[in-house]
Specification:
830 residues; alpha+beta; eight-stranded mixed beta sheet; 20 helices; binds flavin-adenine dinucleotide
Length: 830
Amino acid sequence: MKTHVKALVVGGGAVGTSIAYHLARAGWDDVMLLERDELTSGSTWHAAGLLPLFNMSFATTHIHKYSVDFYKSLEAETGLNAGFAVVGNLRMAQTQARMDEYMVYATTAETCGVPFEWLTPTQIRERWPLVRTEDLEGAIFHPTDGYINPADVTMAMAKGARQRGVMIERRWQADGYVWRGDHWDVTCTKMVERGGNLVPSEEQIVISAEHVVTATGNHAQRTAKLLGIKIPAVPVEHQFIVTEPDAALVEWRKTNVEHPVLRDADARWYVREERGGWILGPYEDGAPARFAHGVPDSFRADLFPLDLERIEGEYMSFIHRIPSSETVGLKDDFNGPICYTPDGNPLVGPAPGLRNMWLAEGFSFGITAAGGTGYYLAQQMVEGEAEIDMASLDPKRYGSWMTTEYAARKNEECYSHVFILHHPDEEREACRPLRTAPAYDRQKARGAQFGHVNGWDRPNYYAPLGFDDHASRSFRRGGWWQYAVEEAKAIREGVGLIDATAFTKHVVKGPGATAFLDWFTTNKLPKVGRINLTYALTATGTTRTEYTIVRMKDDEYYLVSAGAWTDYDADYLRKAVADKEAEFGRIEVQNVTTQWGVFAIAGPKSRDVLKAVINDADPATALSNKRFPWLSARPIELGMCPVNAIRVAYTGELGWELHHPIEMQNYLFDLLEKAGAVHGMKLVGARAQNWLRQEKSYRAFGTELGRDATPLEADLPRFVDMTKEFHGKAAMQAVGVRSKCVTLLIDGPADADPWGREVLFAQDGTRVGRLTSGGYSVAFGKSIGMGYVRPDLAVVGAKLKVRMFRELWDAVIVEDSPYDPANATIRMDG
Ligand SMILES: Cc1cc2nc3c(=O)[nH]c(=O)nc-3n(C[C@H](O)[C@H](O)[C@H](O)COP(=O)(O)OP(=O)(O)OC[C@H]3O[C@@H](n4cnc5c(N)ncnc54)[C@H](O)[C@@H]3O)c2cc1C
């Protein structure tokens, strides 16, 4: 057995096998796959094999689509038939809200080139008369997906991998990982059978690998402990039952093709044919998390006992939908562990804090995702980045605050939410509140409805006490919309206060700090007391992080980045510092996120509010343009609170960010609230802020800004200093401008705004781009959006169409910063 390899993939389920295959296909010729038992002996063996293309996320839709296309090609390559039944996938809707969900989804599918059809209840009945349809609104049908045999597709990938030189070693368990500076030493133990259990033997070897990928399925918690990191992948029980043959189905099949995979989302199940009978897979309430502290040796390719009572409601609704199944008996059942993560997306990408260690854990649709994950992760490993932005799957989207208990409870919630209505304005309840700023109770008492971001509870909007956020959610304008409109107007016309405490904050200082940041980021560094907006790039020239940089001293900087991405940003920054310290000199990095609270006060009257509480020899001029110009920062005192104030406003209005010691937050809140009352100050949430920043064309990280576009594609050349050398510059230039970020005003439906996932067309019906953000503009009284279009179309005045709710609506590209393009209100003196 070889003991030196370029890449070692740990885990021989569908996911690990696909990664090994794709690494070899991407050109790495020294890849080994290690499996502690037999290939597919984890969750893969008992999966139902469905390959649903339906997904609300752009990245995941790409991943699933790749898998479906790839699996179809495997037989030609390997000679193995993986039993891919391309029967299609019919998602039925019992309500108009569910149809709305499918319409919102369909526009994402369209951006990714996933085909679909709309069916009325009558059309469903005509094609599949065993299905009861009188209580349906309609359905969306994907003709190109279906189901596959999970073990067979894994074996086909394994054969393809072997053909490309991958070594597959079974009955070896990875038991220890030590980083040696340029490679990992992985201690591997030979596994043996003892008393029916699979146990470690005395035989051990050490394999040196330049790169390691873990794809250990239900064993993720053990992997986390071995690596000394946190991996919020904890399995939950998932069951499906197989019925005896259904006589009506058998009869129907004599002259007809197989039924598509049927999904009655409102009844929370999927059903497909299985040898004349049916497989019913429910996503019920109450499925418990398992193995939160590891998988026992005694659990191999085992199952849990069936809990029929738990799925009784779903079973009855299945009989309702397919009445011929009423008298059919049960033949078989499967209740196995299915790995989840708190948001349902797997954890794919570089491991936090470690070098050349890649995670591929937490797959709940692992058969569907395996192909695409292998493809895109191999791109990341071999080429530096994938062609799609993998941030929504990145393992570091959960921070060090995450615990096993959090993962287990959130994963149970995620499982039971598989078939809920996935409103874009959905907020999930489990494990909240968890991370709260001190002012949380005050905000709640004033009607705040919170969103959950990176564990924080952050106000989304403020409504009258007792307002039911859950009931207000919609795929169109939710019940909260009117409150966000009032908040947005308050900032444009008066003054508003936003809690931005969740912002990620780092201090970078020391003799090497200036040279390092000059190399690390694209823009000129600010002078002392000034701020700049700037970008850290990936090695392939795309945007890795957006920073507001404040220069506190000659060699001390305060970096502010997005609140949702603290560990993601911290990891990249720390690794870059470690790489460059020898070259640039000592650099100290401190993550001060939880030490500093942030209030953003904005609006034409914001200066008046601050003047009333600022402690200064001359309060009347302390905040004037002369003493406190736009894009500068300085320490001030508000009452008894020391504040590092920065004159910027993400809402594009006159305003300041007030960074304050977290322990003084309630004092400051009370002070500002009292002073603000005189000027009618409103508390404002993240939703209004998101609309306002689009009126100013401020790109947001995670939507317009990410690893699939360069700052030049984001059309931000003013923040890129081409006269200096910076990390990723050459790659950014080499990429060119494949598509360009624009702002659009949209004459959309009267009751809906875009969510930022809609497809864009030219007048002639050609697909030319997609929205990445959307919302309502109070300044223009209509919908607004930002997105990417073909560069030749990115011209002011270009007329496009946007698909919303199955119809095309007029959209026009407007100049950047359509509201106050000259920045007159931000610069307003006083
Ligand atoms: C009842 C049920 C039905 C399902 N139906 C579907 C479906 O229809 N469609 C779908 O897409 N998904 C489905 N799933 C989910 C799917 O089974 C999983 O997402 C998928 O199998 C995960 O694959 P994996 O490779 O990540 O993990 P696994 O298949 O669990 O593989 C992990 C492997 O790693 C090995 N391993 C662990 N630790 C080590 C170590 N230290 N050293 C060496 N080897 C190690 C394990 O032995 C195991 O073989 C279903 C799940 C269940 C429970």
